[in-house]
Design brief:
Blueprint lengths: L2 E5 L5 E6 L3 E4 L5 E5 L3 E9 L7 H12 L2 E4 L5 E8 L6 E10 L2 E10 L6 H16 L1 E2 L2
Antiparallel strand pairs: 1-2, 2-10, 3-4, 4-5, 5-9, 6-7, 7-8, 8-9
């Protein structure tokens, strides 16, 4: 599989993503990577003005509120992982990863049609998204 490199505008994070995904920068500072058949991966990096931000406490709060778990990726970056569903008419499953380090928070989500959750191409795409989470690099 071929990959493209992504670097956020503010240089906060960097990762490689599968080249077959379409990339769109949305107006609110969110980056969208998608394939019509398999789902959408969104990344929203935020640099906080609060220099006293407690990233570990924030992760614990997010984990508690969402019944998530705190994990660490291959680059020793802590994040919360949890699964949610859409609050709208469509039956969607949303895989959420919330990363906090220094005075930065990065919200990542992979949204798929719940009916297709076990389709081979969706499972393959989800594995590619997991590779992104496990190998992303932060500049905090």
């Amino acid at each position: 599989m071929n990959y493209n490199e992504f670097v956020s505008n503010e240089g906060l994070l960097k990762f490689d993503y599968p080249s077959h995904l379409t990339f769109v920068e949305e107006e609110d500072g969110t980056y969208l990577f998608y394939n019509e058949q398999t789902g959408s991966f969104r990344v929203t990096p935020l640099k906080l003005a609060n220099k006293n931000f407690d990233a570990d406490k924030y992760l614990r709060t997010i984990a508690d509120e969402n019944k998530g778990e705190i994990l660490t990726n291959h680059k020793n970056i802590k994040y919360v992982f949890y699964i949610s569903s859409s609050e709208y008419e469509e039956d969607l499953t949303i895989f959420n990863w919330i990363i906090a380090a220094g005075n930065s928070v990065i919200y990542c989500s992979y949204t798929i049609d719940s009916v297709c959750i076990n389709d081979d191409e969706v499972l393959e795409e989800k594995n590619e998204i997991l590779k992104i989470i496990e190998n992303l690099k932060l500049n905090v």
